[in-house]
Description:
The chain is an alpha+beta fold and 277 residues long. It contains seven helices and eleven strands.
Amino acid sequence: MMVVEIENFYGVYLLYCINPKYKGRTYIGFTNDPNRRIKQHNTGTKAGGARRTSGRGPWEMVLIIHGFPNNISALRFEWAWQHPDKSRRLRHLPKKSSKETAFQHKFRLVSNMLRVGPWCKLPLTIRWLKQEYMLEFDTLLQPPNHMPIAYGPVQSKRLKKNKAESVATETQSSQDDDDDFVHLSQGRVTRCDVCVKRLQEFERQLKCVHPSCTMKAHLTCLARHFLRRTEDSLLPVEGTCPKCKVSLLWGEVIRQKLGCQDVPQDSDDKAHWADEV
């Protein structure tokens, strides 16, 4: 099975214990490198594993929710999943019933979490790393349309040096927009299809997911473009491409940027990728 590589990875995972003595126990954690983290859990605290999992392995990393914008966002999700009774967004949910296994209870919790703010607006991916443990979402707890359910292994990919530097200095790249005439004499200027200002080579920019469309835009410009008709929302969910006018989900645009989504093929009926989820 092909391993999906993702840059700037932030994920919250669910472990399942297969040790006969502790079988069925679960553990929730945060990672930016799933492969390294599961090795740490199975090696013990000396290798950086958690105290609660040390000496109780082997563990399987069966489910991971990824696509968080940063580690703070992912850590808040992790904390709420670990402590639903203390989270103001989850404390109303029924506690674990005697008929539920620990694994089923954790899955019910995350099913609810993905449907409430702020998490329901994030471009998250629900990934089953081990399909033999897969559970179906309840009909009343289906994840939002912009969150795909994926299958198979995932690997964290390090940002290239010049790309990492561009993230750290993103705000600096928007300066000197009045110097466009100088750059025009040096070659063709690539412009944002929303604000029409030039795009720096390593600036945070997004593209349309459709291969035939050449739209490029600043991340913040496209976000504002998507939010024009949603006054009560702080995070974009859906909008139209400013160039080809095709409806786009913010999540699929971000996933393409992070390199964790296959680009859809253009078709006459313009079938949406979410129809297959």
